[in-house]
Amino acid sequence: xxxxxxxxxxxxxxxxxxxxxxxxxxxxxxxxxxxxxxxxxxxxxxxxxxxxxxxxxxxxxxxxxxxxxxxxxxxxxxxxxxxxxxxxxxxxxxxxxxxxxxxxxxxxxxxxxxxxxxxxxxxxxxxxxxxxxxxxxxxxxxxxxxxxxxxxxxxxxxxxxxxxxxxxxxxxxxxxxxxxxxxxxxxxxxxxxxxxxxxxxxxxxxxxxxxxxxxxxxxxxxxxxxxxxxxxxxxxxxxxxxxxxxxxxxxxxxxxxxxxxxxxxxxxxxxxxxxxxxxxxxxxxxxxxxxxxxxxxxxxxxxxxxxxxxxxxxxxxxx
Length: 319
What we know:
By secondary structure, the protein is mostly beta strands. It has 2 domains: 35-198, YmcC-like fold (Beta Barrel); 205-314, Jelly Rolls, CATH 2.60.120.230. The chain is built from 3 helices and 22 strands. The chain has helices at residues 2-25, 70-73, 83-92; strands spanning 35-36, 46-52, 59-69, 75-80, 99-102, 108-110, 113-115, 122-123, 127-132, 135-145, 148-154, 160-166, 171-178, 184-194, 200-215, 221-228, 240-249, 254-261, 266-272, 277-285, 291-299, 303-318. The strands form 5 sheets. The chain has a 10-stranded antiparallel β-sheet with strand order 5-4-3-2-14-13-12-11-10-9. The termini are far apart.
């Protein structure tokens, strides 16, 4: 009886061991490494990104988790560590990953609706759809390797998003948007990341008010345009207006720019002489009024002027 019992126990142990090996081969033991769950962010977590666009010089911004209790406790607030950079991102409007981000999907809000640019859990072959940059995208996870999940999203017009989620960083390693011709419209690259950021951080809720570009307009021409400054559709009055200017004059050319409010009070004045250049100038106008008139005067044939103006509502946090 003793030998029979010992033999029976040995058979059970061997069967259990073989069963464990079989489970490992089928993926039961290691499957969690091939599935990325949504990370949990904490206040002070940060990511340093370089942003590249075809029309503007590269800029670098540190994105910081400022709050974890937005949208009745269901979303984070992602802000920027520099007020100047927060204003720049508000007027250029090229970074969709600022402001509220949902806990469940790290979903970015576009036109007040959370968009699942990521769809957790991420696993190879998973598909979903979302809207970003006012474009509808069909996405799938093309590969998972180590700490990286590679996602490809395409649109009906041939545009494409290629982005990599980094599990160790808890956010994007890279994010690239290309148009139907394969030209880059936006590229984000992670430079560094960490936790425990301290200091003031900012989010500027922006709204486009005016944008135009004039190039080689010809000799001695004056252009005048009027635009109305209305309130933010949901948050009321703007705190300020933010302007962004690129200007370049060839030899023998000049540009003058004036912005006046409805009382004909000058809010902004700039003059560039022959050979002068000023790129990426950022500034604010503190007291928006209902109507503004922009006047640009060009002399000489070789000129370039780009003006963007946005309304801004600034929020700040001390962490």
